[in-house]
Amino acid sequence: MEPARVLQDKSLQANEEQFLTFRLDGQEYGIAILKVQEIKGWDRMTPIPNSPPYVKGVLNLRGVIVPVFDLRLRFGLPETARDAFTVIIVVNIGGRLAGIVVDAVSDVINVGAEQQCAAPEYEGQQNREFIKGLAQVDGKLLILLDIDRMVNPEALDKTEAAVAASL
């Protein structure tokens, strides 16, 4: 009887969402787990000429060309050397795949509606449209990202057009 109760305690409640958490420049971020296709170790990729600096290139993922975006550069953070913890999170955006480079993946967590709040707004704020909100989880502040806005279909279209032009 005890194991069933433990399973029930870990299950997703009606007012909760699951997020994959990751680190970027020492800060914890989260994206909806339902958007995550897979997590892949850092790998060389083919650069795309004339693309924005945050577009690291493309990967061939089992026959599918996947554009890869560096979140450090997308958020205006300094670029760092890749290490054993650097990964590419492959996400599904409207049926299309894209990769995002992060410093390290942390965990999958449940976040209740009562733990979430809107991110504060201030003048001159950049990349605000990517932030879904904030959450306080286990004493840590987590920035919840809206991956659909961050890697929007328009950005994917531009990257695919750049790939086609370079062939």
Structure in words:
It contains four helices and eleven strands; from the N terminus they run αβββββαββββββαα. The protein has a six-stranded mixed beta sheet, with no helix packed on it. It has a five-stranded mixed beta sheet with strand order 3-6-7-5-4. Residues 1-9 have low confidence and may be disordered. With 167 residues, it is α+β, with helices and mostly antiparallel strands. The protein has one domain: Beta Barrel (OB fold (Dihydrolipoamide Acetyltransferase, E2P)), CATH 2.40.50.
Ordered list of secondary-structure elements with their pairings:
Elements (H helix, E strand, L loop, with lengths): L1 H9 L5 E9 L2 E6 L3 E6 L13 E7 L2 E7 H4 L12 E7 L2 E7 L1 E9 L3 E2 L13 E7 L2 E6 L1 H4 L2 H14 L1
Parallel strand pairs: 2-11, 5-7
Antiparallel strand pairs: 1-2, 1-8, 3-6, 4-5, 6-7, 9-10, 10-11
Key terms:
single chain, 4 helices, alpha+beta, 5-stranded mixed beta sheet, 11 strands, globular, 167 residues, 6-stranded mixed beta sheet, OB fold (Dihydrolipoamide Acetyltransferase, E2P)
Could you write a compact summary of the structure shown?
The protein has 167 residues and is α+β, with helices and mostly antiparallel strands. The protein has one domain: OB fold (Dihydrolipoamide Acetyltransferase, E2P) (Beta Barrel). The chain is built from four helices and eleven strands; from the N terminus they run αβββββαββββββαα.
The number of helices is 4
Q: How would you describe the shape?
A: globular
The CATH topology name reads: OB fold (Dihydrolipoamide Acetyltransferase, E2P)
Approximate strand percentage? 35-45%
What is the level-2 CATH architecture name? Beta Barrel
Q: Roughly what percent helix?
A: 10-25%
